[in-house]
Amino acid sequence: SSALLISDIPVDAPIGCCRVGYVEGEFLLNPTHKERESSLFDLVCSSTEDRVLMIECKANSVSEGLFVEAVKFAFEQNKIIVAKQKELGAFCGKPKRNITFFSISEQMYKKIEEAFGEKIKENMVIEEKTLRQDNFDRFVQEAEELVKEDFPEEELAKVPAVLYRIQEKEFRKKIITTKSRPDGRGLKDLRPIWCK
By the 8 A CB rule, do 68 and 125 touch? Predict the structure, then answer.
């Protein structure tokens, strides 16, 4: 996070991360290995200055209230880390470079959506993942053929992204309306787990 902040890469949201333990009624910031052995839990939390991004915790039994307090404690400590990184960026950071964001022609999107929207919908109900992927790869080739006369060659490299966006839109629509995933599992169903 600090390295990105002082570089010319256009990232300006530093992240703090800390470990929190709990021994004899006190939160411990970045406890040692020995302290972690007697801790009620082992919590790792990363955050920006305004939101928690990730929480991992190993514990046997911890009340919800204590867990929430531990996360709040970690979040406050991470704010200190983020503030120090911002100071570092202000002191020795390079000016951020300007970048051109990836954009897709609206005309290309519409042309491909008209030709492949239904095919993508039909492909999404196929339960076998490899077959779905093979079909998608074929759609990419067909879509490139469809638009190659109308768009410059550098735009053809965006065809997979166009199809992916169409698929993503249909995927979300399907989940919301049918409450099921493309492989037929419900929203709360887990894949069967097995090993040999």
Answer: no
The pLDDT tens digits for 49-58 are 999 999 999 9
CB atoms within 10 A of CB 170: 18
| Of 9, 33, 10, nearest in space to 21 by CA | 33
Q: Closest Cα partner for 143 from 114, 105, 179?
A: 114
The answer for residues whose C-beta is within 8 angstroms of residue 178's C-beta and 6 or more apart is: none
CA distance 135 to 138: 5
Contact 136, 163 (CB under 8 A): yes
Q: Give backbone dihedrals phi and psi of 100, rounded to 5 degrees, phi first.
A: -100, 125
Q: pTM for the complete prediction? A: 0.59
Torsion, Cα 83 89 92 94, to 10 degrees, reads 180
Phi, psi of 70 (to 5 degrees): -65, -40
| Short-list 136, 194, 132, 195, CA closest to 161 | 136
What confidence tens digit (pLDDT) does each residue in 121-152 have? 999 888 788 999 999 999 999 999 999 989 88
